[in-house]
Amino acid sequence: MLQPVYLKLCSIQCVRVHLVVLAAAIAMVPSLAAADQIHVPSWVKNNAKWWSEGFVGDDDFIKGIQYLVDRGLMVIPGGVNATASPSQIPSWVKTDAGWWADGKVSDRDFVRGMEYLVGSGIIRMGSSGPFVISSPAFEDNGTIPMRYTCDGGSTPPPIDVSGIPHNARTLAITVVDIDAPAGPFTHWVAWNIPPNSTSLDTGNANAFSEGMTSAGTVGYRGPCPPSGTHRYYFTVYALDTALDLAQGASRTDLENAMAGHVVGKAVLLGTYSKN
Length: 275
What we know:
Blueprint: H1 23-26, H2 42-52, H3 58-70, H4 93-101, H5 107-119, E1 132-134, E2 142-143, E3 160-162, E4 170-177, E5 185-193, E6 209-210, E7 229-239, H6 251-258, E8 262-273
Parallel strand pairs: 2-8
Antiparallel strand pairs: 1-3, 4-5, 4-7, 5-6, 7-8
């Protein structure tokens, strides 16, 4: 039987998105596998062993796990809060993957641990739907509530994200008024937003970097049209890398840095008329 091409050895200079059997997690979740007897193909185990030894990259190993999901050998649980991040995964995870490959950990335990990690957002798999953004504060093409504008508290509205591409490493967002008299006006620029949650945590200033608005301020600046109804485009980008940009960078700087790294894009339109 031909082995998938992604079993070839790759550079070990990959960012280590630590995947793990996570024995401790097994006790935290119910039996999630569909069948009593689980048989994981030998090439997946070989792939895990090579990954644990640093010969196979993280993305290649994830493809092996995706194989299990696609064929129903692994079930992704719902309702699990995505509160963990790759940096929080213990350093011994690769060792556990090697133990499983050597038969010291059962297939069922391996699958249960992986289900927990995927369900928790620690590991990102293929998305279950299109990449879209929405807001509980206003509908697409709807009116932005006053509290998120210059007439209110000028705080960012809540933004929900779904269908984030599995290969996204970070997210970025821009908010632009395309009806401003002097041309497009930037109201918000932010990047290096963690992709392992279903909403943008705008309340944590340390969670990501923010850039300069067209008003010369850093951070979110609420809609404030001089007259008439203006349209504001909230655009979220899924990127395959983290960006090396200084705090306070412009939207142009962000767009230049994102070139060649955008793996997904979603847009939400809001309108506002100043009181």
